[in-house]
Design brief:
heterodimer; A: 2 helices; B: 380 residues; alpha+beta; five-stranded mixed β-barrel; globular
């Protein structure tokens, strides 16, 4: 995880993961889902007698069709917009689009 | 069944199979389509060069297996077979656990299947005027069919060998229905005819032995008995264990049909009856007739003979060749005339090679072809 701004944050992937995500000649869409967690694993969790709360959220990104990395470049920092929250609604929207083969 | 097997399933085979099992295409994109049946959606690729092709086909096979209450391996096997009607040789005498067979048996297996295919194809192509002996000039359908069939292991690692006849993936209708015969692709027509023809040959053997004699073979011609088929049966009964039926397996696209036909072959002891049948059918066949057309290029008359020998240049198999013909007096005079006028002549007979010379034996129907009728061009 690196370089956070107000609108997005960076997530570094290695070359082979990036190539997998940016592939265009595919039949099944590829999404990257990143769950942001603080360094201390228990911190985002809060529980009481009525609820379990998981703080922070997963975000999603499509990198299909991104240009290839330069020769010798081993990794790439992907910029993930904070509006791309991976919620039940966004997942439903993605699946509906997929069912009509729009993505 | 490993996943890489799915790389060999063509997109068209998967689509045809989905359609045959009741799925309809509901969405189509550039590379994939969605097929739907009741509440099962299946993603199918439209092209096989996708990098996730194997994964998509594997997922489709798995969903099909669940929806059809069968095993994924069965679906995969069906998908590999949809494009073919097959004649299986499950056991060959002398086969070991690695499925190796004596070379002699392998040669016999291949030749017998080739003869069987030729005999049945010729019988299918000449339904209206059935003949027992296949002429060297075959109908185009037969030549095309013979060029399309394949031989190999039934499936990877299988201990059975088979002849594969490619059948179209679309338009596979019920083929036991006589009304459909006119629209049936030729390869399917041939493969549908195989069990009947083999049965007719086996029946002819039984009838020949029980009083009817060799005439039984002639009576079987219209039901598919031909000389190549009888020769194939002589070989098959030598390489297959006694009482092994011949198995014809039709494309799994024919759902609801009886996809497997097992036809009993005759016993090895009937081999001599088959041999007699072959000799009889060959003896009653008229000499093969060829029609040639070309220009008379030389005339000669042997002094001790009233007949005159001429030679003419004709196109045979698209090649200009000199053919020698010995003509009766009247035809010889006509040949003289044609030679003088440099017009084409036509004559029918039986071609025979003698050394380097090609002779037309038993010439008949000799005539001068008018210029309007001339279809042949002389060699440049």
């Amino acid at each position: 995880m690196s370089s956070e701004t107000a609108g997005d944050f960076g997530y570094e992937v290695d070359r082979s993961t990036f190539d997998y995500l940016r592939e265009t000649n595919i039949g099944i869409p590829r999404l990257l889902v990143v769950i942001r967690l603080p360094k201390h694993p228990l911190l985002p969790l809060a529980q009481d007698a009525h609820r379990t709360l998981l703080r922070n959220a997963p975000f999603w990104l499509r990198a299909k069709g991104e240009p290839a990395l330069r020769a010798g470049q081993d990794s790439k920092v992907l910029r993930i917009r904070k509006t791309q929250v991976f919620t039940p609604d966004s997942l439903r929207h993605i699946l509906e689009q997929r069912a009509r083969l729009l993505i | 069944m490993t996943e890489n097997v799915y790389a060999h399933v063509s997109p068209n085979a998967l689509a045809a199979y989905l359609e045959s099992r009741g799925w309809s295409r509901v969405e189509t994109a550039e590379r994939v389509a969605i097929w739907r049946s009741e509440d099962t959606d299946i993603l199918a690729p439209l092209t096989s060069d996708l990098s996730d092709y194997d994964d998509i086909v594997a997922s489709a096979v798995s969903k099909l297996a669940t929806a059809l209450h069968t095993k994924a391996s069965q679906i995969a096997q069906d998908l590999m077979a949809v494009a073919y009607d097959i004649i299986e040789l499950k056991q060959i005498i002398g086969m070991d656990e690695l499925a190796t067979i004596p070379l002699q048996s392998a040669a016999e297996a291949i030749q017998s299947l080739q003869r069987l295919a030729l005999g049945v194809a010729y019988s299918s192509a000449t339904e209206r005027q059935p003949r027992a002996v296949v002429p060297s000039k075959r109908p185009a359908d037969v030549t095309e069919f013979m060029g399309s069939i394949k031989f190999g292991q039934l499936r990877n690692g299988s201990t059975a060998y088979a002849m594969f006849a490619p059948v179209p993936l679309v338009g596979q209708m019920s083929f036991w229905d006589e009304a459909n015969r006119a629209y049936m692709p030729f390869a399917r027509k041939v493969m549908a005819h195989v069990p009947d023809a083999v049965r007719a040959a086996a029946m002819a053997v039984v009838e020949a032995r029980t009083g009817k004699g060799v005439q039984a073979f002639a009576d079987g011609i219209e039901r598919g008995v031909t000389v190549p088929l009888l020769r194939a049966m002589r070989q098959l009964i030598r390489i297959l264990p006694e009482s092994t039926p011949l198995e014809v397996v039709y494309s799994p696209l024919l759902r609801g049909e009886e996809n497997v036909k097992r036809v009993p072959l005759i016993s090895l002891e009937a081999d001599d009856v088959l041999a007699e049948g072959i000799a009889f059918l060959e003896s009653r066949e008229p000499a093969e007739v060829d029609e040639i057309q070309g220009q008379v290029v030389s005339l000669g008359r042997e002094p001790e003979d009233v007949q005159g020998a001429i030679s003419m240049v004709a196109f045979l198999n698209r090649k200009a060749q000199r053919v020698y013909v010995r003509l009766a007096e009247e035809d010889y005079q006509a040949a003289l005339l044609a030679h003088g006028k440099r017009v084409n002549v036509e004559v029918r007979g039986r071609l025979r090679r003698e050394g380097r010379r090609l002779w037309l034996d038993e010439p008949h129907d000799f005539r001068i072809v008018s210029e309007d009728e001339t279809m042949l061009e002389l060699p440049e």
